[in-house]
Amino acid sequence: xxxxxxxxxxILNQYIAELRDAEIQKDxxxxxxxxxxxxxxxxxxxxxxxxxxxxxxxxxxxxxxVPMLVEYPVLATILRAGLPIHNGLLNFFDKSDNAFISAxxxxxxxxxxxxxxxxxxxxxxxxxxVILCDTMLASGSSMVLAYKELITxxxxxxxxxxxxxxxxxxxxxxxxxxxxxxxxxxVGVVDEEMTAQSYIVPGLGDAGDLAYGKKH
Amino acid sequence: xxxxxxxxxxILNQYIAELRDAEIQKDxxxxxxxxxxxxxxxxxxxxxxxxxxxxxxxxxxxxxxVPMLVEYPVLATILRAGLPIHNGLLNFFDKSDNAFISAxxxxxxxxxxxxxxxxxxxxxxxxxxVILCDTMLASGSSMVLAYKELITxxxxxxxxxxxxxxxxxxxxxxxxxxxxxxxxxxVGVVDEEMTAQSYIVPGLGDAGDLAYGKKH
Amino acid sequence: xxxxxxxxxxILNQYIAELRDAEIQKDxxxxxxxxxxxxxxxxxxxxxxxxxxxxxxxxxxxxxxVPMLVEYPVLATILRAGLPIHNGLLNFFDKSDNAFISAxxxxxxxxxxxxxxxxxxxxxxxxxxVILCDTMLASGSSMVLAYKELITxxxxxxxxxxxxxxxxxxxxxxxxxxxxxxxxxxVGVVDEEMTAQSYIVPGLGDAGDLAYGKKH
Amino acid sequence: xxxxxxxxxxILNQYIAELRDAEIQKDxxxxxxxxxxxxxxxxxxxxxxxxxxxxxxxxxxxxxxVPMLVEYPVLATILRAGLPIHNGLLNFFDKSDNAFISAxxxxxxxxxxxxxxxxxxxxxxxxxxVILCDTMLASGSSMVLAYKELITxxxxxxxxxxxxxxxxxxxxxxxxxxxxxxxxxxVGVVDEEMTAQSYIVPGLGDAGDLAYGKKH
Lengths: 216, 216, 216, 216
Hints:
The structure is a homotetramer of 216-residue chains.
Chain A: E1 2-4, H1 11-20, H2 28-47, E2 52-59, E3 62-69, E4 74-79, H3 83-92, E5 98-107, E6 113-122, E7 129-137, H4 141-150, E8 158-167, H5 168-177, E9 183-191, E10 193-194, E11 200-201, H6 207-212
Helix pairs in contact in A: 1-2, 2-3
């Protein structure tokens, strides 16, 4: 299932507009902060699908029966561009365990590139709900590789895949390459095009560079 | 209209459970931070009812047509207990102008109390959407007084009234004392009872004291 | 004693430059956030003068003897302009109790103005260290009035007065009107001039308006 | 040069006490937040050694001559435990470019371990001031390896090495293995002992696990 949060109007649309805007995105503090706020919105929307159990809580004035999260999802992210959105998810799911995965684009002489996993620091994900986030979902190959790396560490109950800006092709690639019953896709917005170098058009540019500075 | 956000399950329920819990609420940093996160959730939900206009945004790689907020709501709060939830709303609606109103409970010798407005620092609200927030909605009289103070400064287009924990009586009081077509009520949860001193039961205790320390 | 933090170079100077800059200050999110960071710096500097006691702490791997704060200072602020700097102080002194005081400028027909206290929500300050903060210290009369209001609630052990941008005249006014042995003044920077309306020159404009929007 | 910030009393000592405390550190939100606040303190202290240039800034009421940072330092961190302290540094140095390096402990059958670099996403550091941070400085080998990886990307003007809790042995190791004129060490506190597995005693346990959950 693919949930496109920008299909209804909300402040999320304003945030995506600001992330895209070549002038506004020069302020990297705001760029990161907006991704963190979007992480909060994704967390809230995904939290509606989690399992709650009513428990007794003792207040200073009585006893309340309140639904509480049975289990926090594991929050996985792809380095480095996924970090701000991961920070936002972790702010909302503050008791979650986490996983960090690096996917590296190796550019070849013929103009193509391949993606490989270099680093994976993964908590126990067996039988857990996992949220795997990145800022962009371009070709989709980093996300698929990261997912495949994740499941070498256990079998999640379900995985929510989160990206702020996705390409239509990237969404298709995920749907074709990952088992559909095991995943739910959450994107801010879907753009139609990609460049030959797999940058989303109009997109927002290179999210990692905008958040953390150009790589050497 | 009354929107009770806890009627569907989401991380908001976990937050309300933590705010209520007499042990967890001893950590005032977490107490304030949870109210700020709730402010973000209220902001997001209310933002779905605001007006957006599609504008052209120039990205580093193209032009995107994106819906942007036509006008930010004015954020009004009641001192001091409303401040953390106001901070959360302002984090999401970062371009909003603001209003601060103090409502004071004057306790009389016979055990009753009256509420009066002492301080009002109000931005222009004429023809604006206003969000008026407090942490608790107990008897409802502070909220009604604050609303009445607000409208001496202009006539809002519409006012969203936000409270984390409300009493059933307080919600009724608002509905009876404010023009229904002009307001929408958003609450986290509704509790059935109140003490003679107008504390909500089971509630969470005195939100102002928990966030900022006991008053002298 | 007057401590002027900008007299040595640090990132505080960069922050004050950004607060002053008529272009940068249009971003009220950054304006508030910079004041919050300055609040952290003031908290850290003032914390060096507080009293610590070595206690045993049990770590997962042993026992550590560590100095801990004997008592958190009370954080008092003047509404509304003081709120962002208060938020920054409270972020660093997260267990502190708080006081909120409103001082209102009443403009008279002859161009003069008087300041009066309308609202004071004050925690117990008797025998406590108090930090009383505002963003600007212009004529100094709000600060002196707020201090005098505070001490109707108890006798602090010592009071630290904090302002981001002060006028030389305001600093003098404080020194003449408050008992010098009971207070320490901490300012970001001192400007030499004031307008007839008591705005600091070059200053940064109206801090309350910049953080929260023009008053009606 | 080695700067031990806990040698004078400040709120930093309270923070280190809370990070160490086996009870308090169960709250991973607070654990991460405290590391972020410490990152702010390190940023502020290091910022005193950076270079400022007086520039004219136009305020709403005049012109101010203010010292501004000539160049932001590059912020480098070691994954994953360094991330919260890096977030705190980046909050204070919001315009900085960044570098992320992963150092992995490979445990051998004989109980020893070796550390290798897997991932390095590094911005241009040539002729820049660099701040390289990690939460713990235990044996010192991750930090030395990370530094050596960094300088394959350019020659920094100077490097500040930051760690919240260090072992005496780790500090020595850095001083012996890195060119002393090129680096300055900043630590929160120095502990005397280490376990055979290179955990600092009394230390605080495994900072990565405490912030992000146990690794699988």
